[in-house]
Amino acid sequence: MPLEPRTADFPRIRGAVTFYQVASVITGVLLLLLCAEMLLKYAGGLELELGGTRGFLAFVPAGTVAAVNLSTGILIVHGWFYVVYLFSDFRLWSLMRWPFGRFLLIALGGIVPFLSFFLEVRITREVKDYLADREAVAASETDPVEAHR
């Protein structure tokens, strides 16, 4: 029989799922930006420059960035935010007491384009439904009016 979350952890689980939702969306958007940047750089030969001689924001040929290289910035920000995403995944996974494979599946959401968006909806719905069901069962077991009917 698999372990189930403790009732005392339900408030922490709600916080963890909210944190996971936010981290999932931000990581997904950053991953899509990273994919677009990689396509521009390697297929189009362009990089994104901020504050250079060609204007506030401009695409310049790869290797000629003279100001702030936003292409590299997107790469770095996604990498660090993926660590935050993994932490949110670990926190939710450990509170829900899921098998390790579930942790790995959710972790893939930060490296497979669009997967974080699908998983965010699915995981959030699953966790919230689980909590609602467990709370309904607990309420019916402790409701003295229901016990006398």
TrEMBL record:
Keywords: Cell membrane, Membrane, Transmembrane, Transmembrane helix
Domain DUF3817: 18-125
Domain of life: Bacteria
Chain segments annotated as coiled-coil in the UniProt record: none
InterPro entries recorded: DUF3817_TM (IPR023845)
Keyword Cell membrane: yes
Residue ranges crossing the lipid bilayer per the database entry: 20-44, 56-83, 103-121
PANTHER family linked to this entry: MEMBRANE PROTEIN, MEMBRANE PROTEIN-RELATED
Protein name: DUF3817 domain-containing protein
Organism: Luethyella okanaganae
Highest classification ranks of the organism: Bacteria, Bacillati, Actinomycetota, Actinomycetes, Micrococcales
